[in-house]
Amino acid sequence: MKKGIPILVVVLIVVAAAVWWFSNSEDQQVAEATTFVYCSEASPEGFNPAFYTSGTTFDAAGRTMFNRLVEFERGGTAVNPGLAESWEISDDGLTYTFHLRDGVKFHTNHGFTPSRDFNAEDVLWSFNRQMDESHPYHGVSNQDYAYFGYMGMADAIASLTAPDDMTVVFKLSAPNAPFLANLAMDFASIGSAEYAAAMMEAGTPEMVDQQPIGTGPFMLTDYQQDAVIRYTAHPDYWEGAADIDRLVFSITPDASVRYAKLKSGECHHMVYPNPADIAEMQADSNISVMSAPGLNVGYLAFNTEKAPFDNKLVRQALNLATNKASILEAVYQGAGEAAKNPIPPTMWSYNDDVVDYDYDPARARELLAQAGYPNGFETNIWAMPVQRPYNPNARRMAELIQSDWAAVGVDAEIVSYEWGEYLDRTSNGDHETAMLGWTGDNGDPDNFLNTLLGCQAAATGGNIAFWCNDEFNTLVNDALRVSDIDQRTALYEQAQLVFKEEAPWITVAHSVVYEPMSPSVQGYKMSPFGVHAFYGVSLAE
Amino acid sequence: MLQFFLRRLGMVIPTFIGVSLFAFALIHLIPGDVVTIMGGERGVSAETRAELEAMLGLDKPLWQQYFIYIGNILQGDLGTSYVTGKPVLSEFMARFPATLELTICAGIFAVLVGLTLGILAAIRRGGWLDHTVMTISLAGYSMPIFWWGLLLILLFSVNLGWTPVSGRMDVMFWVDNVTGFMLIDTLLSPAKGAFASALQHLLLPSIVLGTIPMAVIARMTRSSMLEVLGEDYIRTARAKGLSKTRVVAKHALRNALIPVITVMGLQVGMLLSGAILTETIFAWPGVGKWLIEAINRRDYPVVQGGLLLVATLIILVNLLVDLMYGVVNPRVRHSK
């Protein structure tokens, strides 16, 4: 036995030496093809963007493999032509006519080669699958069409028809101003009807969701769950083939490890850095850090159905009693700006004339006395258990607010639950005050103001302030029914004034999003929606 | 021997039932539910909730859910993942080779280094070597896997650039998945340098995962060796004029290793549970990482099925170790 040990040690050394020797020959392997490696945070839930709601899936499917009728501009919220070259909206806002682009090619994979270009049939298939429960593909893969439901598309669309191969017409049941922007969202990605029919015939309809083909800039080549997704550039992409030949998602759940991989050159771009690492990254000349204000808001909502928060004066008082500057410093560490409106400043119709509540504990005490609480009261603050883009540390934020409120006599207890439980209980209204936030989906103010503060949302639970104000609600619902952008802007600006006066929330901050990458990455643009897309990106030598 | 075998096997069945009950209960005791998670910040409406619950079978009473669950398991059906819609068993089998490969390499590391260190420490009892080994093993034993992994990555991958940071294979290589064992698949693949890349990727995670078992084995070997070296027959052997090496190798080691084998067996459980953390740090696409992701997504069938499979595996390995022990050391067969 003892003799065996030195032999094993020798074997180990030989193996190690072999690894060295072989690894040096690895250099020849690094292909001529340009490969872009993106260190992503998790496996996508799947490859059909209509099924899922997470950005991880949009990155891996919607933004790489698919196109939509209309597209958000790269790095912005404006809506540009996509698979539809142009469109007309009728004066009553009820009919949307899209003229489709000619000569758009679908991807090819092992099992399928398309025989025709993209046409209206594909659009019909993609939408009917989601809205028509008797559609042969509706039940395939047994998943929910989550976003289609969230956006109320089934109610919004009265009919969808194709007068000819290159035209589709949506008839709406009521004017719906954000409709166009909704069509640029990932759930509205267009798949191939021909591929679907072929797979149905072959008896493997789920292949459409597992190995999808789209018209997008990259084609799925290979996927090993929890490890790697490989794409090759779509050679016939209608906007022109991508500059990078291969795109690799290297799935790396731990933020410190992603950072290590970026440093060691194993990936070109990483998502979701640890906030604590950002200063170090910025100081490193081998890493370039892009940052942009996120399309989000972090807030604390008062449950306006419960006393004393049904009293406007109390809500205003606590707004005045909260020191936002110290929260921004301690919680966001500079990676955010104070919020005064429920919508972020990068969004159109942001009302800059709104005056925020200053930090003024003396005035807060006066208002509390006026409301009948000269000695304050007891309440709770719910803090989210997870880090979110709009709130990096809810617990810390709660502690700061707790001490601010204590200074005006309001004694608050901090409460937290596991994330799923937290969402559940807040939408039930179990809380008195609770923190939450929102990241925009489609760049439309309705997606914040109505979704989070409308009366309907108070009934279904999206509005955790349970605030239903007639004036505000009328304004945002009127804005939905006009398609003139100036008119809508005026209505939304007015709504923001009402909101600030009524103070159902403390609007805390709009966070800044950071994306570290290698300096060799060129042409990358950050999306305000927090998705990551690599068409238009190239690698410098 | 047969009686011993049956007795040990009899203990496995209640253990298995206990584990299944635990796996089932755990998922219902922890807060949060899959339907809420599916809704995210947006929440789900009451109708959608009822619809989803019915679809997932969550509307039935708990005991009914349990019996359905056990019935399915007995038919070899561990359920289908809520997220991917694929059978849990096939998802497990797709990932298990990665975990097995890592566990085997970590085990080899633990045994080789642990035994060597333990024997050296025992022979040089009280010397600097002994002290060094004891310090290393104590440190190794108390090292949190997460921190230790990141520390090694920082040193060897980031600063020295000797090893890759994470994953099983350089993303530049496109190796076909034949057996699921990267070391074998890369040898079958024409890609040059792929095998070396696979080895390099295995190095750090194996060390990280093997560190705690290594420390345990080292300490156990040392103390067991010391005990045996103090026995009369060793003194007799010495007195007969046998060389020290011969005494240690022929007489002491064989007897000292008996308790060490048991410890090694118990470490398999340690390796499998440690794999969950190690796989997460090194983005190693095995069973551990799969379970962690499933927990995050409240993918009940995967968590239940995965836990059950891993627990069964540990139970079986322990059974195997017991039986081997019975062969090596006949005395245990007769003791109660």
Please work out how many helical segments of chain A DSSP would assign: 19
Largest interface: A-B, 70 and 69 residues
Radius of gyration of chain B: 24 Å
Radius of gyration of chain A: 26 Å
Tally the helices of chain B: 14
Biggest sheet descriptor of chain A: 7 strands, mixed
The overall strand count of chain A is 20
Give the SSE order of chain B as H and E letters.
HHHHHHHHHHHHHH
Oligomeric grouping of the chains: heterodimer
Q: Distance N terminus to C terminus of chain B?
A: 13 Å
Category from helices, strands and their pairing of chain A: alpha+beta
Count of beta strands of chain B: 0
Share of residues in strands of chain A: 15-25%
State the secondary-structure class of chain B: mainly alpha
- Cα shape of chain A: globular
Overall average pLDDT of chain B: 82
Question: What is the approximate shape of chain B?
Answer: globular
Structure description:
The complex is a heterodimer of chains A (541) and B (336). Chain A is an alpha+beta fold. In chain A, 33% of the residues lie in helices and 20% in strands. In chain A, strands 12, 13, 14, 15, 16, 17 and 18 form a seven-stranded mixed beta sheet that branches. Chain A has a five-stranded mixed beta sheet with strand order 8-9-10-1-11, sandwiched between helices. A four-stranded antiparallel beta sheet of chain A has the order 4-5-7-6. In chain A, helix 14 (394-406) links the parallel strand 15 and strand 16. The model of chain A is unreliable at 24-31 (pLDDT under 50). Chain B is mostly helical and 336 residues long. Helix content of chain B is 76%, strand content 0%. Chain B is globular, with a radius of gyration of 24 Å. The chains are: A alpha+beta (541), B mainly alpha (336). The interface between A and B is large, with 70 and 69 residues.
